[in-house]
Design brief:
single chain; 201 residues; alpha/beta; TIM Barrel; two-stranded antiparallel sheet; 7 helices
Length: 201
């Protein structure tokens, strides 16, 4: 089970994850989010990141011209699409980069799961929405026929239940925060719970 801590934007956030060692971290390139980072800032943060932790760039309806710059920057190891991008967009994106492409889906019902299953992205991220901090009906996951990251509303209180659904990965953002900034203790707890589940303890 992989672990992603998303929405890092401070130097100390990088210090926290370097200590906890999740598999992935996320930079949010969406200006309406309070976790937004510029490309320049992401490059600075990436330079501090442990080389064994991969960075995921979260994009919302970004233009292809801008995506070229992000792909060439070195700040982003994996692309996560979180807007209205479709398979045509993903196909065009593959023409300019060989980076892994993830696509997030807001899950409200069975039809959303079907849309996710039909995506040509390399990995699915099943979410409740764009940074709402709430979870969706996880029982819908039973109809997912592909590996996925479970996201949206996962926190220290329900991480154990989330793990029971056996996702490929766990994606946590607000659940690892206190007062809208990353919390070292919460990050360590969440990563620890995932590692413990993987080891079978």
């Amino acid at each position: 089970m992989k672990i992603k801590i998303c929405g890092l934007f401070r130097d100390e956030d990088i210090d926290f994850v370097n200590a906890a060692r999740p598999d992935f971290i996320g930079f949010v390139f969406f200006e309406k989010s309070h976790r937004f980072v510029s490309l320049k800032r992401a490059e600075q943060l990436k330079s501090r990141l442990d080389k064994n932790i991969r960075s995921v760039g979260v994009f919302v309806d970004e233009s292809m011209d801008s995506m070229v710059q992000y792909c060439l920057s070195g700040a982003v190891d994996v692309i996560q699409l979180h807007g209205h991008e479709d398979n045509t967009y993903i196909s065009a994106l593959r023409e300019i980069t060989d980076k892994e492409i993830w696509q997030a889906f807001k899950i409200r019902g069975e039809e959303d799961i079907k849309k996710a299953n039909d995506s040509s992205a390399d990995m699915l991220v099943l979410d409740n929405g764009m940074g709402t901090g709430e979870s969706f009906d996880w029982s819908l996951i039973r109809n997912t026929d592909r590996p996925f990251f479970l996201a949206g509303g996962i926190n220290c209180g329900n991480i154990g239940n989330a793990i029971k659904f056996a996702p490929y990965g766990i994606d946590v953002s607000s659940g690892a925060e206190t007062d809208r900034v990353k919390d070292k203790t919460k990050i360590e707890f969440i990563v620890g719970q995932c590692r413990k589940a993987m080891s079978g303890d």
